[in-house]
Amino acid sequence: MNARVLIVDDQVRVAEVIATALAHAGYQCETFSDGASALRAVEERSADTVVTDWKMGGMDGIELLRELRRRRPELPVILLTAYGSVSSAVAAMREGAFDYITKPFDNEELRATVARAGDDATRSREPLSASGNRQPLFARYDYRREPQEPGSA
Amino acid sequence: MSSENSQSNGASSPDLAQAIAPPGRVLSKWIGAALGLLASIIDTASLKWLGTSFVINGHDALTLTAAWFGVSFAVLGYLLGDAIDGSRREREATRLIRDQIETINASRAKLVQHEKLAALGQLAAAIAHEVRNPLAVIRSAAQNLRDTVPGDNSDARRACSFITDETDRLASLINSLLAFARPVQISPARVPVAELFERALSLAGDLNSGKHVHVRCAPDLDQGVVNADSELMCQVFVGLVANAIEAVPYGGDVTLEARPRGREVELAVADSGPGVPLELRDRVFEPFFTTRAEGVGLGLAIARQIVEAHGGRIEVGASASGGARFAVILPRTSFGVTATA
Fold it and tell me: In chain B, N or C: fewer CB atoms in 10 Å?
């Protein structure tokens, strides 16, 4: 059975092109124009990955991410944003996003990220002995720059 | 900016008053009077020497005549000196007023430029979101279309590539505008110069493919440490090295140099390209100035912002081989170069 990806973006065309790009790679996609609808869908139906825009009317991407982390911590969430900056990437990863993609994006990179998210979610469902001693997700995508005092070596 | 203006204006009043009434203004008058007196003595002596007799009602009037000449000439000299003082005061006041007007105009131009850049920053941030969303749709849709075009339809596939390439160019423009418009925030740390250069060369290495440019560090590289934001300073040098690689001919040379310079430290990228013409050297750091057909003209402006945020400056000159030499000069006080043990 193909992996199911929920795509959330209040810009309907963005959601549509993402769905098409992922469908070409064999994913089963469902699009939503707001976070609340996506949240209901996650409760009602199965989902393997969520791709959501950050800035949206009503529930934004970060709020959706927090809610999903609370209800379905194993579900990988990929954040999309038109405000690309290091600080926003850091904020996204700290909130527990699987990854962070800036618009405009490359379809290949998007598909690769969704594939990695799926692989990671699959491994996380396996017993620890089978998947080895995995590092937490956050450590893999930690963009933080440790502040250093001038003069410290 | 306003405080700068007020400081400038505040300082101008005493300067102006001093220029209009300089402390030495009485000197010319008295010099004039003394010269007048001297002239009268010489005049009287000359007339006496020539045999002129000064007689009034049968009495010798030499003393009276000399006194009359002395007073007249001294008063004349005093008035002449006063006129010279007045003229000098006027010239100095005019010069100072002109200088003050130039300073005010420069401050005003700077303020306008600052306001323009602030407005540009807000505009860039606001449009970034609005522009990146449609760009995302266009780019992704073009790629989706390319996925469905039969492999033998090269025209359609090429057209799709054009769309994605041009979308990337627009996205890059938006990124540059945002980078330029955002205030630079630095997180300084001790960074070995060699490490900084090595990283910049590594990141810029991909740009060197096909041109066989000899990119290297100078053999006498200062093995010191600078206190700088590693990421941002690396970005500056990647940009400078990339520009240099683009400027030099096939097989050309790009050299990274570092040396102490008085109370400062100089990190430079020198190349063997055609160099930057003298008349363009002041302009290359201006935003949106470019000599390239496809350049946005923000790379060096952003580099200048980053360097200035570090309290330094960036300059362009000529390299030993006649090419360009971009030097980043950082103050030793806050960015001291220290010898590594």
Answer: C
Min Cα–Cα distance to chain B from A25, Å: 10
Among A7, A29, A107, pick the best mutation site for testing chain B contact (most B Cβ within 10 A): A107
Convert the pLDDT of each residue in B315-335 to its tens digit.
999 988 889 999 999 876 444
Q: What is the pLDDT of residues B256-308, one digit of tens each?
A: 999 888 778 899 999 999 989 988 888 888 887 877 766 778 889 889 989 99
Confidence at residue B43, expressed as pLDDT on a 0 to 100 scale:
84
Residue whose pair of structure tokens reads 């952003």 in the numeric block? B302
Interchain CB distance below 8 Å, A104 and B138: yes
Measuring CA to CA, which residue among B168, B121, B161 is closest to residue B301? B121
- Rounded to a whole number of angstroms, the CA Rg of chain B reads 35
Is A26 at the interface with chain B, CB within 8 A?
Answer: no
Name which of A114, A86, A116 is nearest A102 in CA terms.
A86
Q: Which residues of B touch A85 (CB under 8 A)?
A: 178, 182
The model's pTM = 0.57
**B219 backbone dihedrals φ, ψ, rounded to 5°:** -65, -30
Question: Any idea which residue has 């090419």 for tokens?
Answer: B323
Q: What is the full DSSP assignment across B77-108?
A: HHHHHHHHHHHHHHHHHHHHHHHHHHHHHHHH
- ipTM score of the complex? 0.78
Quick check: B128 contacting A, CB < 8 Å? yes
pLDDT at B12 over 50: no
| Alpha-helical segments (H) within chain B | 2-20, 27-49, 62-148, 154-181, 193-204, 230-247, 299-309
Q: Which residues contact B325 (CB under 8 A, 6 or more apart)?
A: B268, B269, B270, B271, B316, B317, B318, B319
Q: What percent of chain A stands above pLDDT 70? A: 77
Residue B224 pairs in a beta bridge with none
Smallest CA-to-CA distance from B139 within B115, B160, B108, B153 is with B160
**Residues of B in Cβ contact (< 8 Å) with A152:** 189-190
Q: How many helices (H) and strands (E) does chain A have?
A: 7, 5
As a dihedral over the C-alpha atoms of residue A60, residue A66, residue A71, residue A77, rounded to 10 degrees, the angle is 80
CB atoms A17 and B132 under 8 Å: no
| CB-CB neighbors (< 8 A) of A108 in chain B | 143
| Nearest Cα residue to A11 out of A52, A45, A46 | A52
Predicted local confidence at residue A150, as pLDDT: 35
Coil, strand or helix: which one is B60?
A: strand
Q: Rounded to an integer, what distance in angstroms lies between the CA atom of residue A93 and that of residue A95? A: 5
Interface contact B203, partner A, CB < 8 A? no
